[in-house]
Design a protein that fits this description.
The chain has a two-stranded antiparallel ribbon. A two-stranded antiparallel sheet has the order 3-4. α17 packs across α19. The chain contains 19 helices and 6 strands. It folds into 4 domains: 58 residues, no CATH class; 134 residues, Cytochrome c-like domain (Cytochrome Bc1 Complex, Chain D, domain 2, Orthogonal Bundle), CATH 1.10.760; 111 residues, no CATH class; 103 residues, Cytochrome Bc1 Complex, Chain D, domain 2 (Orthogonal Bundle). By secondary structure, the chain is mostly helical.
Length: 457
């Protein structure tokens, strides 16, 4: 609480007072009106601070820090935890390129600035080695650090709130007894003040993060589908990328019961994570359960291929899932009806694109059908037909690579065309692709290509 009312914070509030008063003075408001308005704003901030402190004192910080591990640790529990950490894709965020496994330091772009993942190895000084089981539970399922601060929701604790007690105990056993302790100090986030203040995040957590509750199947739900729902909604946190977010950054739906925005597709880190619902053109409506299972295992099917962020998910996580769990995920996704969002708008069919024939046809075919288990088809491809062409533009600009997996070790690469083709040629070629071979999506403007090129550098 001392940090809330430190001299630095008071100086910053004074600066905010002055900055807020200046526009009012320029607009012709008198000194009394300016004083009244600024006092009102600061009073509101102080009321929120006091409410936060009182609520934290009366209601606690959530969870029991002294909670005891509900089961005895043994090798089987540690092995189980290792599998769950793979299924939850902990490596992807908590391992920086060239860094130690789970030692943190990965830069994560966010709308408010750059965040850095933390060290979750059992080193007692720089990692989580001093965490009790209660500390671990509060961090993973409630979004509360050992020091009591609310974590940024880059940590997907709204999804992890569904993790069962048994699985959480296994994860704790693995991170404490199955991971090598590494000394690596956590980096402070690069977030400008006042966005860097953590106490408003507590209100965000109260409003948008569900209270922890172990996942329970719906009455009459097929056990395989229920298992898939648990993996997708909870441990696998698929909605963190594939569900649209509101202006206040929370996922608009956390389960199918929250509406058809769940897994309806969302822009993420310079890509567009497509809909995982049942749309024929822009979703998984044309995928069989076998297609989905094969994709999760190898990163490719006869028609489709993983790229961008999804390549990392397959590489670090889904290829290591059991066949039963991958099938469960597939069965659950197949239960989701199409989103109610507008259908892709029809483009004007173009008869020929010389750039496509010169640069693309050798791999993807003159007819857009690609080659089995090699180069993905562009005809009726969900990424091609989605209303948001961000991922399509991104991969043409920067290229991509399929993940190399145990089941498919060949890593096929698409070269970048950002230095070869102008923004107009890229826009025209992609408009051609989105308008032929059964594709019916809107045209892409050169300005959209230019904007994405600038944003991704």
């Amino acid at each position: 609480m001392h940090s809330l009312f430190s001299s630095r914070t008071l100086l910053r509030l004074r600066a905010v007072w002055r900055a807020g008063a200046a526009p009012l003075e320029r607009a012709g408001f008198g000194p009394r009106a300016v004083k009244f308005a600024t006092v009102g704003v600061l009073s509101g901030v102080i009321v929120l601070l006091i409410a936060y402190v009182v609520a934290a004192a009366l209601g606690g910080l959530g969870g029991d820090r002294a909670a005891q591990l509900p089961v005895l640790v043994n090798s089987a529990l540690v092995t189980r935890g290792a599998y769950l950490a793979r299924a939850g894709d902990c490596t992807a965020c908590h391992t920086a390129p060239g860094g130690g496994r789970f030692a943190g330091g990965l830069a994560i772009a966010s709308p408010i600035g750059t965040l850095f993942s933390t060290n979750i190895t059992p080193d007692r000084r720089t990692g989580i080695g001093a965490y009790s089981y209660g500390d671990f539970e509060r961090s993973v399922r409630r979004g509360i650090s050992r020091s009591g601060r609310t974590l940024y929701p880059a940590m997907p604790y709204p999804s992890y709130s569904r993790i069962t007690d048994a699985d959480l105990a296994a994860l704790y056993a693995f991170f404490m007894h199955g991971v090598a302790p590494l000394i690596h100090r956590n980096r402070s986030e690069a977030v400008p003040w006042p966005l860097s203040m953590r106490w408003p995040l507590t209100y965000w957590r109260w409003l948008f993060a569900p209270r922890p509750r172990s996942f329970l199947p719906r009455p009459g739900q097929d056990p395989i589908v229920a298992r898939g729902a648990y993996l997708v909604e909870g441990l696998g946190h698929c909605g963190a990328c594939h569900t649209p977010r509101a202006a206040t950054f929370q996922e608009e739906a956390l389960t199918p019961r929250d509406g058809q925005r769940f897994l309806a597709g969302s822009r993420f880190n310079g890509w567009f994570a497509p809909s995982l619902r049942g749309g024929d053109m822009a979703g998984l409506g044309r995928w069989t359960a076998s297609d989905i299972e094969a994709f999760l295992m190898t990163g490719r099917t006869d028609k489709f291929a993983a790229f961008g962020e999804m390549s990392l998910v397959v590489h670090h996580s889904t290829q290591f899932m059991t066949a039963a769990d991958r099938i469960a995920v597939a069965w659950f996704l197949r239960t989701l009806p199409p989103a109610s969002a507008k259908r892709p708008s029809a483009g004007v069919e173009l008869t020929v694109s010389q750039t496509y024939l010169d640069e693309c046809a050798a791999c993807h075919g003159a007819d857009g059908n690609g080659s089995p288990s090699g180069f993905p088809a562009l005809a009726r491809n969900p990424i091609v037909n989605t209303n948001d062409p961000t991922s399509l533009i991104h991969i043409v600009l920067t290229g991509g690579a399929m993940p190399a997996t145990h089941a498919a070790q060949t890593q096929l690469v698409m070269p970048p065309f950002g230095q070869v083709l102008s923004d107009k040629k890229i826009a025209d070629t992609l408009t051609f692709v989105r308008s032929n071979w059964g594709n019916h999506a809107s045209a892409i403007s050169p300005a959209k290509v230019t904007a994405l090129r600038r944003s991704i550098g």
